[in-house]
Amino acid sequence: MVREIVAIASLGGTITMTASPQGSTGVRPTLNALDLIEAVPEISRHVDVSAETLATIPGASLSVADLLRALAWAEEAVAAGAVGVVLIQGTDTIEESAYLLDLYWRHEAPLVVTGAMRSAQTAGADGPANVLAAVQVAACFQSRSRGVLVVMNDQIHASSRVRKGRSSGPDAFWSPSFGPLGYVVESQAVFGGTISRPQALAVPPSDALAPVAIVETYLGDDGALLDLAAAANFEGIVLDAFGVGHVAQDVAETVSKVVAKSTPVVLTTRTGSGPTFTSTYGFIGSETDLNRRGAIPAGWLDARKSRILLAAMLSVGSDIDEISAEFQRRGTLTAAAPTD
Questions:
Q1: Where are the chain's structural domains?
Q2: Amino acid 7: pLDDT
Q3: Can you give the C-alpha Rg of the chain in angstroms?
Q4: Hey, which residues does 129 pair with through a beta bridge?
């Protein structure tokens, strides 16, 4: 009987970290993909695996170029017959890297991203359990056509919703507003939620994305920081606003100036949960006013996801209308069945 193949690659992160040489402080990435697989012998009971080490660096140091190389590796693995792929990386940037990969992932086979909150030599290290769960999700037929998934702590998250909401501990990841898509139960992926997936975007011609800034508003904000970001040659700005998309009057006036320079401004909520509104409030600096000034509402996408999407669109030359339409698709279509 021919067994299914799951391809596994590692980029590094806490899951690969071990104690530093004598005299040094703290753990550092040292383990490769084969080391991680050998630590979980139960994987071989389920599927055959291939292992590749793409990098051995902390999650905070990952670049877009690293992720695009990982994307190419994953596509080659699927073309070679893998039913799913698992990408292991540092958790600091999973919520951004998984979404970036999801924007470009055009295969039915799942791409599952995982990592660990505790280093390999720590008591109660969560890395082996997360790798096993990720492999089980990648091999499960029910995971197909759901795009890039994040598996941590036996929870299955949509890449467009997941956030690292706590600095430490195995329960650091969750999906605000809607919760996880499913769970790993008795070695199987069990899904109770769905996610819509618009058509994949074109991969940018270079290994870097257009520069986009995130500017979070604050009590007493006079728009100076937003003005500085616009003057610093960022090609786009994500304005992380109060509540459902509100800023002070001075900030609203600055938005008009920035948009007039043909710099797209995407409006998100800094609350961490819930969407931006479009037409409930009518005061100066409200979501209605900002939209009228040309700001693009992000809907359910948070600031970090919005920065990735805006940068991806700008990197292939999209204009304001195309960017606005893409945010409409990805920021509001949140409850449809997965596409085939």
A1: 5-191, 212-332
A2: 98
A3: 21
A4: none
Domain 5-191 and domain 212-332, same fold? Reply is: yes
Give residue 233's pLDDT.
87
At position 177, the amino acid (one-letter code) is S
pLDDT value of residue 321: 97
Longest dimension (CA), the chain: 68
Q: Which residues of the chain have pLDDT under 50?
A: 334-340
In the prediction, which pLDDT does 340 show?
36
Looking at domain 212-332, which CATH architecture does it have? 3-Layer(aba) Sandwich (3.40)
**201/165 Cα distance (integer angstroms):** 27
5 vs 330: CA distance, rounded Å: 31
Per-residue tokens: 65: 């170029």
pLDDT at 46: 78
- pTM equals 0.95
Kindly list the distances between the CA atom of residue 14 and the CA atoms of 89, 127, 165, 241, in Å, as whole numbers in the listed order: 8, 8, 17, 32
For residue 78, what is the enclosing H or E element?
helix 64-79
State the Cα–Cα distance between residues 246 and 273, nearest whole angstrom.
15
Q: Mind listing the pLDDT tens digit for each residue in 285-295?
A: 999 999 999 99
Instruction: Give the whole-angstrom CA distance, residue 6 versus residue 217.
Output: 44
Give the CATH class of 5-191.
alpha beta
